[in-house]
Structure formats: structure tokens, C-alpha cells
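subagent[fold] <- orchestrator: predict structure for attached chain, return C-alpha cells only, no commentary.
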Amino acid sequence: MNFRFVTKTVHAFLDYPVAVSLIATPFILGLGRGNPWALYLSVATGIAAFALTLLTDHKTGVIRIVPYRMHVAVDRLVGAVFIVAPLVLGFHGLEAAYYWLNGAAVLLVTFVLNAPEGEGRMLASAKA
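subagent[fold] -> orchestrator:
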């Protein structure tokens, strides 16, 4: 079984809910009480992720001007920033855990579970 199942299409359909989650979850969890940047960073990243998804050349992109490879590179950069943000910005407790878990999830999806472009078509034709 191939564990690299996050094809370009799967990624496209995950992008909008993830962006909305980055905007809403900090309010639900009450992030920002210990350090306001714990709220601001996630909300700003969610807004930017939503805009990036609108502009990406994939199935759910509206104005498809950003290549998918660049989109994935930005996702990886965000994952790395989320890993180091608690250390640099002094997040503790739930705020630190939120960023470390989100950063780890993004890096896992984009480095380990991400199928190379075109692999979705190869997987479909291999099953036929």
C-alpha cells in the first residue's frame, strides 16, 4: 500500500478547511492570552493560506497563477515556522503545543504523505 496518498487533488480539497481552522481554532482554544502573537500568527497564516489556495493552480484554485510546487514549498515553510515560533516568540503550554502539532502535521503531509505530481494518475492507471 502506498502511504503517499495526498495527491494534488486531495491537497486542494484539504486547503480551505485547514485555512479556516487556522483562523477559527485560536479563538476556540483561547490562544493569545499568554502571548498575543499566538493568536495573530495563526489567524494571519490562515488568511494567507486561504488566499494562496485561491491563487494555486490546482482543482480548487480560482485564479490559477501560483504553481502547485510553489504552494507546497510555502506550506513547508509555514510548517517550519510553526515549529520554531514557540521558541522564538516565547509561547508556552497550549499555545506552544498548538504550533508544534500544526507544524508537525504540515511537514508530515508535505514531506511524507504528499504524492509527487502526476502520481495520482499513475495510481489510478495502475489499479485499472
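orchestrator: received. Logging for downstream: Residues 8-111 form one domain. Residues 122-128 have pLDDT under 50 and may be disordered.
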